[in-house]
Each structure stands twice: as structure tokens, then as C-alpha cells.
Amino acid sequence: xHIILHDLQNHLRFAPLTLTRPVGNLRTGMFTNDERWxxxxxxAIISYHTEDYLAEKxxxxxxxxxFWVNAAVIPTExxxxxxxxxxxxxxxxxxxxxxxxxxxxxxxxxxxxxxSESLILLENRWDLFQKNHEILVADFQAYTxxxxxxxxxxxxxLIGDEKNLFIEQGAHVECAILNVTEGPIYIGKDAExxxxxxxxxxxxxxxxxxxxxxxxxxxxxxxxxxxxxGGEVNNVIFQGYSNKGHDGFLxxxxxxxxxxxxxxxxxxxxKNNYGKVRTYDYxxxxxxxxxxxxxxxxMGDFSKTSxxxxxxxxxxxxxxxxxxxxxxxxxxxPNFSWGGQSNSPTFDFDKALEAANNMMVRRGxxxxxSEEKMLRYLFQTK
Length: 382
Fold this sequence. Notes:
- Strands 11, 12, 14, 15, 17, 18, 20, 21, 23, 25, 30, 33 and 35 form a 13-stranded parallel beta sheet that branches. Strands 4-1-5-8-7-9 form a 6-stranded mixed beta sheet, covered by helices on one side.
- It folds into 2 domains: 2-122, Spore Coat Polysaccharide Biosynthesis Protein SpsA, Chain A; 129-380, UDP N-Acetylglucosamine Acyltransferase, domain 1 (3 Solenoid).
- By secondary structure, it is of the alpha/beta class.
- Helices cover 15% and strands 31% of the residues.
- The chain is built from 6 helices and 36 strands.
- The protein is globular, with a radius of gyration of 21 Å.
């Protein structure tokens, strides 16, 4: 079975996160969406139809019989069953939204089948944190069904039903307060919650992620693998391999891979007048009005802030930007900005590669040729 997660020309709608990955590789809930498809369809070959410059790292694998799937749709057991039941050259729609097409080539308007189904569809980048609680709960119920959690150490305090807590083998949790009355808590393999931390679920911690000493977490939050988080976080998604290791507040935010937030980096997630927020839109290349009152920062891969950085409500930071300016940086910081101000110079590309690789080596990996080509494309087209 070949499942091809199709961006459907929504590449810029989820930028800057999708400047370095296809839509199908975005994290929300307990998984990235391609991981979620692998969970529900372990027999399938999962690949991507995305932008040309991303295709070397995220290639497409086609056969004579493919399932072309809307990459922004969150799969569930019942939805996957309907997709598997498609006949050749049939398209599945739910509430007039395209879900999947089965065929050799992509022809989504042929032989439409409308299904009655509860559908979780990501339509804007802020849906990742807005819908994170709903998705995390569904993931937790599906993944932990029939599995047995590791026991919780007696040094901890658990508030709520233990069935809403799942601890994988090798995880370490000591002297923490875990409240699962509002949402489940999942602690992945070899993950750690250090002493004094207080967590109000939902929370999903992927493999080898860490909550540092005295961390406060509330609102649905997802930590990708090898992410380290401290201070205060509320409804935040870390794609993976990123650090917020010190005090400072981060709320209603999206952090890419290989990012580092310096000590006491703080982000506003609410305007002083309590009004609806405006934020930068990569499709229109200008600020747009949203219907949200709470929105923090979205940060592209390989970007960093210095100590004591202050970020305005709904700040958008591109790929490989380094912020160390006094005061608030602009609400939109482009790729490869060196300083973060509107008149800041461009980060030298070779030095940007060196910085990226230095961070990756600390986690036992190196920048690949396909990643270097991807970053070079973004640098040349910024």
C-alpha cells in the first residue's frame, strides 16, 4: 500500500515550519502526521508530494495503485478504514473537504464519494496548537489501547485517573506533580521530568525529551524527540531537537527543529487591548487579521534567541535567524536574519551551516547533503 501525503499547494500556509518540511511532517498531538499514518497503516509505504526543493529529503514513492491523501487531515481508525475501502479512481470527501484519492496519478475530482465522518483538518498554522488538545487526546486513546504503562514512582503526586497517564520504558519521573484531570500525559521512551516540575495535561513527550527542574506546563503541549524545555510553557509544540532550557514564558507557540531559546526569552501571547491578533502571512507576504486572541511565536528551524529576548504577540521568525537585538524585534523576522532587526544584515551562509551542524553534532547527527541544498535554496530565494 502506497500512501502519498500531498501538500495540496498549502506549503506556505504553514510556513515557516513548512519551509523545511512537507505538510505531512508537521507535529501536533503525540506524533508528526506521517508517524500517525505509519501507526494506523504499518503495512504502508508513506511518502510525500511536496515542493521540488524539499523532494530530495522527502521523496515521493509511487506505484500503479496509490492512495493520495490530504497531508493536513489527521487520520483516525475509522477514517483510515474508509480510505482503505476506496475503489480505484475514487475520491473521498468529508464535509466538502478532499481527504483521499486512489489511483495511479493524482485526479482528486474523479468519482467523488462523500462520507459522514468526524474530520480534523489543519487549515492554518495556528491550528497546530489550537487543535492540539483534541488531537493529543485522540492519539493517546488510540496508542495506549491494550498497552500497559510503566509504574509511576512514589515520589510523585498524581492528580486524576491513572489511566490518563502513560509512561514508556526507560522514562524517568521523580518528585513531580502530574494532573491528568484536564488531559492525558504521555511520557515517551527515555524521556525525563525533573524534580519539582508541575504538569497539567495534556502533555506528550517524545523519545529522549526533557522537562528541566521546576518546569511548569499547562495547556496541551507537545515535545518532539530530544527537546529540552524549562520555565513556563502553555499550549506549545516543539517539532523536535530544540531547546528552551531556562526560565521564561512561552505560550500558544510553534517551535521548529534545532532551535534554541536563550535564558529568559519571553513571548507575549495576548495583546494589551485583548483584541484579535494580526500575524505575518507567507502567502500574501503581509500581516493578516486572525480570529484568535491568543498567539505567541512561530519559529522556523535552526533559529535562535539570545538571553533576555522579548517577543511580541504573534511574532513570526523564519529559518536560521539569530535574534540578539535590544528591545522587541519586528513581528516578522525573515530567514537568515543576523540580529533580528528590520535593518539587520544577512547571516553568512557558510557560518549558518557551521552553526547548524555544530548544534546537530551535539545530538549525534550531522547536516546531510539534502538539508544543505534545502537551506541553500532558502538562502538564495529569501
